[in-house]
Amino acid sequence: MKKRSTAVLLTALLLFIFAVPSFALVDKSDSFYVADCAEVLSDALENRIISINGELEYYCSGSQMVVVSVDYLDGLYSDEYAMTLFNEWGVGSREHNNGTLLLLCPNENKAWLTYGSGLDSLLSSSKVNEMFDSVFWGPFDSGDYETAVDNMVSELVGVYASFYSVSEEVLDPSSQQGGGYDYDDGGYVPYENDQTVYSSGNRMSAIIFFLIVVLIIYLIIRRADRLRYRRYCGAMGYGIRPYHWWYLFWGPHLHWHDPRPPRPPMSGGYYSGWNHGSHQYGSHSGFGGHSSGGFGGHSSGGFGGHSGGFSSHSGSGFGGGGHGGGGGGRR
């Protein structure tokens, strides 16, 4: 009986020992991408990391970069702690396994970078150690954890940019003229700073603006071409015919040149039309007739009237009319 009690106690003790590390792990933060439990990172750097993740997920097949700082590792090795968080949080795309998790523990002077197998072609233990030695350990050992993390984030941006053939400026909007994303209720919303807001919505707005400009230019050109087509129909004696949109590209008027001379100022009555059938100048007022030469007009203006003037109704000569004006007749 005593042996059985001892065995039960030992079993309970072992279960407790193995259970402690799992309860000691930090929980996900609201932003998921940054869990600064040791409070060593600024809000600006956290926003930058969140912003980069928005671009990583969009341009790099769901990639994610997570940064976690803790006060203590609670008896775990840094690689164990980082790997456990990486797997439990599900960092990166499930399909491509392309996530990275940077863990730092300032109080124990330790840090670790865990990455998914989908990045094996670019990252290796030697490559990661190289990155730590060149940009991380220097500021980290001097207590400048902000700079150490900022440098490593930039290195990882370069890795993702190279792997997915995307420029670093695209993946890191905050390195341009400010902007990015704030994490809000499980999604991204653009946040503003003193300069520019960068988001996929802005890119769509730029595309829409471009299309509107193209449409306006097309309508202006189409209107000018339609007026040219109407002049063509009038000169050819066709009357006003319907204008079709394809006339802009292969209409009958494209190689036509207006045979009429420049139109003089409309004062005192001058020629205002071209009669294609008789090749005479004529108008409804001033000097000339509707279809035959001479001095006169159809209704008003000029010399004479409807039954008097310088021509007659059926021929040429000097005749007039009744409404007053510059006489002339129409055939």
Topology:
Layout: H1 2-24, E1 34-36, H2 43-59, E2 65-69, H3 78-89, E3 100-105, E4 110-115, H4 125-141, H5 145-164, H6 168-171, E5 180-184, E6 187-191, H7 200-236, H8 247-250, E7 274-275, E8 280-281
Parallel strand pairs: 1-2, 2-3
Antiparallel strand pairs: 3-4, 5-6, 7-8
Describe this structure in words.
By secondary structure, this protein is α/β, with parallel strands linked by helices. Helices cover 40% and strands 10% of the residues. It has a four-stranded mixed beta sheet with strand order 1-2-3-4, sandwiched between helices. Strands 5-6 form a two-stranded antiparallel sheet. It has a two-stranded antiparallel sheet with strand order 7-8. β3 (100-105) and β4 form a beta hairpin. It is rod-shaped and about 105 Å long. It starts with a helix and ends in a 50-residue tail after the last strand. 28% of the residues are buried.
Short summary:
With 331 residues, this protein is of the alpha/beta class. It has 8 helices and 8 strands; from the N terminus they run αβαβαββαααββααββ. It has 3 domains: 24-192, Diaminopimelate Epimerase, Chain A, domain 1 (Roll); 202-250; 269-331, no CATH class.
